[in-house]
Fold these 2 entries.
Entry 1:
Amino acid sequence: MGYKVSYEQADKIFEKLSETYEIWAPKRFKGKGRYSQTDLIRYDRVCRAEDIEYREKSDMPAKEVLSPITQSLFYFTEDEYIESKATSKKLLIFMRPCDIHAQHHQERIYLGNGGFEDLYYKRMNEKVKIVMMECTEGWDTCFCVSMGTNKADGYAAAVRFGDGELLFDVEDQDLAPYFEKMEENGFKPDYIEENEISLTVPEIPDKDVLTKLKSHPMWQEYNGRCISCGACTVACSTCTCFTTTDIIYNENSNVGERKRTTASCQVEGFDQMAGGMAFRHTAGDRMRYKVLHKFHDYKARFKDYHMCVGCGRCIDRCPEFISIVATVNKMAKAIDEITGTES
Ligand code: SF4
Ligand code: SF4
């Protein structure tokens, strides 16, 4: 059922929802951006509809709500441990269609990869209801249409933000009572049909081509360009890698807490194993690994979609202006060169 509500009415709905739900959405943090006098848009709890930054794409993705950049997993004392507490409320998260697709990738890895279920992710994930933010224009780094992530269904509600009013499509019956007595409306969300940039992901026909592609000179360009900061993966909607650290409180090494922190395959040392062995020694090696993971390996393993959802955040965040779209296009050219299909 569709509804039209004013911002004042939306605030009252939010107030009522807040008794049961934590409401998370992109929010603007003034002056907190990377450069002087720039803002940061990232996920945070909101109380009012006006708090939601819908005019611009968030710098950081929705994954931050369920898997924050750093979190305490459990606390230990001698031979006992206590799990950290999760919120007792349900979670209502506002996100765009590409972010919804990205959440499905996150779920697959955290809840099924290697036959293992991450309980810290699961206990948050099972509380989630999604409010899809209509997205019809995108930005100059988006390529969701190419990746097939411009449309999403299965949301609890969808919303269109207007200047003086909001339109909601409420699908989840648990949310319907909050909209009782609001003006009914036939609203259904629209979707973007064409981005400013597009991408055709090249097929890698066989293992021989893949092996040759791995040693293609195109990757070496990144040795002089990528600074291995990992910003692209931290901002990536679909990256899930993390590392764990034990924080010891005092001289007794048996008392402390285990934290998990986002990790990046782009940072030197990520692949180092016990004994000091590592596999990817240069920025180019690491770039190759990331790009093939997003645009080949993941799909080859799970047999359905590529991992990248085309949100473009890695392009926005890279201090060296490295574009994943340009990189994949270069990779396509390299494959043509290897297979002798260059035009
Ligand atoms: S690789 Fe880049 S465009 Fe693709 S999902 Fe990650 S941040 Fe978005
Ligand atoms: S591609 Fe850009 S953001 Fe990613 S590690 Fe390299 S320099 Fe940093």
Entry 2:
Amino acid sequence: MDLIKEDETYVLNLYKRLPLVVKEAKGLWLTDEKGDRYLDFYGGIAVQTLGHNHPAVLQKMQRQMEAFMHLSNYFVASSTVSLAKLLVSHSFAKKVFFANSGTEANEAMLKLALKYGLRKSKEKKNLIALEKGFHGRTFGAMHLTGTKGYRAPFGEDLPFITHIPMNDVDALREAVDENTCGIVFEVIQGEGGLVEMEEAFALEVERLSKKFQALILVDEVQTGLYRTGTFFAHERFSLKPHAMTLAKGLGGGLPLGALLLSEEVEEVLQKGDHGSTFGGNPVACAGGVGMLETLLAPSFQEGLEGSMKRFEEGIRGLKKTYPHILTEVRGRGYMVGLVTEYAEEIKDRAFQKKLLLNVTGKNVVRLLPALTLGKHEMDVFFRILRDILQELTEERRRG
Ligand SMILES: Cc1ncc(COP(=O)(O)O)c(C=O)c1O
């Protein structure tokens, strides 16, 4: 039996897998069993920030693995402390709690918000989240998630979470009051079709948070770590989060999530309030240190700015040439969504041409390349995508 069949037989199949068995991954390239190379624009769904097997990440992980892999959270580990220190020194945060994933980091954020509110009053336990927002699949994070379809099979909605549409300032004003303990959002909705928060909405979040002492809780699981051009996507706004979650690329490819806490809330969760056996695993944190040290180097940043600009110009050019196919371009940096009714068709044709593209929300081709995307890879990507758009245009013309 081949591996794809065995996977279907033995693994609970909850994902739409690609018909591809990868033997090796390096940078932005995947090599299959036959030796064919594929250009990877999944980026591990925003995990491979520096591409696959980046030497800086690999070296740190290998060294840590040889020292020890896991001791438990009853011990300090230098890589875990180093990663927390890097995050604190480059953000608003005073403290970091480590989890294993985005959804777990959001569970911790949810508990933080509820404890914060309930300490003030027994009524202050309402949370505002956004329609189409995505925060994960565990129970609490699933209820923060704005797409009803993800929650519906598992019973009734939690009564203290209200979802409002992104960028609807009136709905926000209506929803937030003195019983609100927190407002949870992504700055660009990753799973929800790359819809971006507008400044007017962010300003209103800031104003209402101050007025009602509601926490600003930002989920940067997908947008964080320079994916949109700045260290964190919320930096474009004046608002300062009380807490923020990170995951995806944070562990350099290994599972790791984090909750970053500002000074105002660093005392809310106390010993015994929360925990995780694996959270802050030393090997994952070592990978994270290697990744962040590389990302934060000024030379890397300069290169990134130039390449993101080139990418944006290329995408804008395609949108101009093929407006009948690409109806809208969303997102920024290396988190870009091409809105098109041909999303699945483009994905399938790209696969035939050995370019791996992901689709979200049915009609959005989501581009999440590694931040190390080079000129050659960018040229290959644009050549293949242009060929597909041209093919579709000609087929449309022929009817
Ligand atoms: C914004 C956001 N939050 C949370 C999550 C959940 O993260 P994880 O899959 O690591 O649990 C995701 C995953 O895609 C995400 O995009």
